[in-house]
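Hi all, posting the design record for the shared folder.

TITLE: backbone redesign
STEP: 1 of 1
STRUCTURE INPUT:
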């Protein structure tokens, strides 16, 4: 299959960047990874597109197999659609929420509020500090000698809350995240039929028949043809010796056994389907 060139979404053409806060709009230096492939990785070993997105401590992941979804391009379209859905449903945490989290190195137990000490370890001032946006900090200090220890601390806490109210927008987790989040829904495209696992011929499989494999002995010589199928919660298998039946006959018997197994599975699935009563 020819190598796919993913269709790149242009933020200016497909997304209304005015709908996002100014500090969230991706700039030139932030567009090092195409928005079309944000959170999507190609696995040559597993032959799939893997979507991996992290929001806080929660990881959202799903794989889209080339074989099951009708090829590399169809699998990519499905991966992008699922990625878009997750991005819109689970946006990054708000910047204010992150700012309200207590850091492990905090000595006061109050996020964004610091206590200045003198050489003897006595409080001399309480300070409130917040980074509103990248490169823009605000801070205000309240002297203990002027307000008293308790009042200086109370004023610093109140000032911190005032600063937090000025914070807007969401955490920037990736240059392309905002582009995907504010983009309009994708137009539906016709996709190939999803292929059942039972229809995929594994490689290498010299039989060319799904579920029928050639087993070799300890010396690497062809020993038997085996048919294996999952029927319900059980794995059913039958083997036919090449030494006893010959290569062609053993293979034909295995293919016939596979067809028998598939009929058993179909009957098992029909038996599990809810029965509908006929009207009297």
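Okay, here is what came back for every position:
SEQUENCE:
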């Amino acid at each position: 299959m020819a190598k796919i060139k993913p269709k790149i979404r242009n933020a200016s053409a497909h997304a209304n960047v005015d709908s996002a806060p100014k500090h969230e709009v991706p700039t030139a230096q932030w567009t090092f990874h195409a928005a079309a492939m944000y959170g999507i990785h190609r696995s040559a070993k597993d032959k799939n597109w893997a979507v991996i997105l992290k929001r806080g401590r929660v990881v959202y992941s799903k794989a889209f197999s080339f074989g099951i979804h009708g090829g590399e391009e169809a699998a990519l379209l499905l991966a992008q659609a699922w990625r878009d859905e997750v991005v819109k449903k689970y946006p990054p945490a708000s910047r204010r929420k992150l700012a309200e989290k207590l850091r492990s190195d905090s000595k006061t137990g109050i996020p964004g509020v610091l206590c200045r000490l003198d050489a003897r370890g006595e409080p001399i001032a309480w300070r409130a500090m917040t980074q509103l946006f990248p490169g823009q900090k605000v801070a205000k200090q309240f002297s203990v000698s002027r307000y008293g220890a308790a009042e200086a601390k109370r004023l610093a806490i109140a000032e911190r809350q005032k600063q937090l109210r000025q914070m807007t927008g969401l955490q920037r987790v990736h240059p392309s995240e905002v582009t995907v989040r504010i983009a309009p829904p994708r137009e539906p495209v016709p996709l190939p039929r999803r292929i059942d696992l039972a229809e995929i011929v594994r490689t290498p499989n010299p039989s060319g028949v799904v579920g029928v494999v050639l087993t070799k002995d300890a010396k690497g010589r062809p020993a038997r043809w085996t048919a294996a199928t999952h029927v319900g919660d059980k794995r059913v298998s039958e083997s036919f010796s090449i030494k006893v039946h010959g290569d062609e006959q053993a293979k034909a018997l295995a293919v016939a056994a596979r067809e028998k197994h598939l009929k058993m599975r179909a009957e098992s699935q029909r038996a599990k389907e809810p029965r509908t009563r006929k009207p009297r």
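COMMENT: The mean pLDDT is 80.
Let me know if anyone wants the other runs.
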